[in-house]
Structures
1.
Amino acid sequence: MDRVLCSPIELGSGVAHCAHGMLPVPAPATLELLKGAPVKLGAVPFEATTPTGAALLAAFVDEFVARPMLRVQRVGYGIGHRDGPIPNVLRVLLGEASDEEGEQNELCVLECNIDDMNPECYDHVLERLFAAGAHDVWLVPVLMKKNRPGMLLGVLCAPWLAPVLTDVLLIETTTLGVRRHGVARTALKREVQRIATRYGEVAVKIAYHHGRPLRGKPEYEDCKRLALDSGVPIHRIYEAARQVLAERDLSLEPVEWLP
């Protein structure tokens, strides 16, 4: 699957001449467009990212990463005309994600303990967190002070999204504080394929290890839809998908490790 990655964005410093006069860098439109993205200030004494550039990044970038793991295939450069203390150069790399040891990246975990919120609200909170870009969200029952039952609410996300998701937790729950720490994750490369069963097509997530298909898992929403359309129990849809995957040597169960 093609993806566009971008390093943290340098905004520059100083002032910019706009239709409304001189404004401090970055321009208001630039900041508005780059909400949630990681930015840097001060590397050059002028505007380094214009609203037009910010709009392009906001529209095309899938993820902001500081150190992408790539096998580089081609390199391209765009050179600006304004001189400064650092090269006025845009460098673009075309490559493939390294899958020798799986996809490795730095992520962030947000946590908070809650013991005074209506449990009906958790579904809404989890939906808001996923909609805001969380990779995963979980709830763990815990015992808090004075033996009060509570919930540990955890969120896994990209570091640059941590401020946005922290705001969701502080606004949408009753917590008074959110903990944050960085984690390193190694993840299998994945792609979604569609397979044909006797009940209809099902999307299947295929996981790869060292470049080879490891296992596949049907997507729940597709299985649910086919079960309702066909009037059969959902486990029959899973069984039909399992048979197709078995024919392709893609079991739903982890395969035995081979040296």
Note: The helical segments are 28-33, 51-60, 122-131, 162-172, 220-230, 234-247.
2.
Amino acid sequence: MITFDRVSKSYPGGHQALSGLSLHIEPGEMVFLTGHSGAGKSTLLKLIALLERPTRGTVIVNGQNIGPMKRRRIPYFRRQVGVIFQDHKLLTDRTVFDNVALPLIIAGHSHREIGRRVRAALDQVGLLDKERAMPVTLSGGEQQRVGIARAVVNKPPLLIADEPTGNLDPELSLEIMRLFERFNQVGVTVLIASHDHELIRQLGHRVISLRHGRLVAPHLAYTGGAQQ
């Protein structure tokens, strides 16, 4: 599903976010991405979503070498990747329904199909009764679940999440992670960047750890100290 082959990413000013990174994530895996602040986690996710392009190396997502992809193809590619952010990035002047519907509207689906898919996504995250609510009236955990519903409404084969529980308490964090596990159980590949080592330990999935833009113990389950 995801392959990085000797990928490096440099930013203007000389900052090297990733250095010769090689890794592979199988279709249907659920994997955590961890490392210190500035280790390169967000950059790695941005490369997968084509929000950034590699300076060197090859990034393959769902069988496509995406680095040289033409700009006009990017919107079609992104329908294959659901992206969840820590700060939700919800439109505060739109209802929950309208926020979740946005990817479907952009993709040109019919009004009837949009209604069906949005309500199915909201049902999956337990917010069907909130479709007419405004985001500001929701709790932090509910807002994050709206973000997840928006990410999965297109039924993408891949979900990536950047610190999705960073602003939530431990109980809500576990609830959100269990939600990701439910999507993974039906075949969705899930990659989550997280600093929450205790939560990662509880869940027991494979961990990819970064340190200063390089890989550390990519094939081991989380065992504690060595990967912190």
Note: Residues 1-80+158-165+188-228 form a domain with the Rossmann fold fold (CATH 3.40.50.300).
3.
Amino acid sequence: MEGKIMHERYEDMHEACVRYYVQDETMESIARHLKLSRSSVSRLLAEARSTGMVRITVEAPGGSSSPVARSVSAIFGVRVHLAQVGEAASIASRFERVSRLAAATLRNSVKDGDFIGVAWGVTLSNIVPYLEQRPLHDATIVQMNGGTNFHDTSARHVAAILQALSQTFDARIVQFPVPAFFDYPETKRAMWRERSVQMVRNLHSKIDVAIFGVGGIGARVPSYVYSAGFLDEDDAEKMHNDGVVGDVCTVLLREDGSYHNIALNERASGLTPHELHRIPKRIGVVADPSRANALLGALRARTITDLVCDDTTARDLLDLVDPEDRKAARAAMAKDHS
């Protein structure tokens, strides 16, 4: 009996949504047709939005058509989703606006059957509270980089991100139960031969959509990688000597986009830029202008296909770009409008 009632409610919810959002009927008209009160129809529509039956997308003002976004797109060959925040905005406001846009971008990018790759970090922790329900069929959340260290073997911050995404998309979780950085390169090489680790790494090659932040050394909002016990003082000195400015998936990068011959990368467990290139859609998210040089390295390493960031970070990024590159971008935009 209970199942019959639930089925009838689902049918009422679906019909109410079609009439309201597609056929543009009023709630009063729908209520008369379904023999319900107007408030009952309102509750059905609200439930449809909360469960993912209905998805509403609002483009950010300016968005990818703004001059700054178009310049970044022309120079680096990426799709740009720009949150208009302004230089005077607080860092909390900046993270909120970018996180909301990133959550919507991810939600609109995934589909049934997808493997969704996730790299943990401060940025992803800020994004997950803004995810709205969108149940998928046969989707899988795949952790892209190890998350434990000597001080935190449980990796609670990683588990919280994965669980939130799993609940949002009604997807199963595949964890990557290895350290963020191994103590020794030879330990990493040995672990990569383990069948359980190979199983996860094989899934990495099947990822359809990935989302990650860009870590920055000395960023205004500290990256977990550099502030939560994953690396020690000797490691910090090595990064300085190797010219490291940040990371993607805990793989360290220089501003020119190179990542080879960085000693710590021999111990890093995350996907390298070369491995990321196999993923069709790679959503990189930055909400901190002090990470502009790390973002430049990530873009030059071609780790990102879809950039979600705020307008100030984008402008600071362009300030770091060679003037000739900016000139070529302007010429390309002018040609598009001719």
Note: The first strand starts at residue 79 and ends at 83.
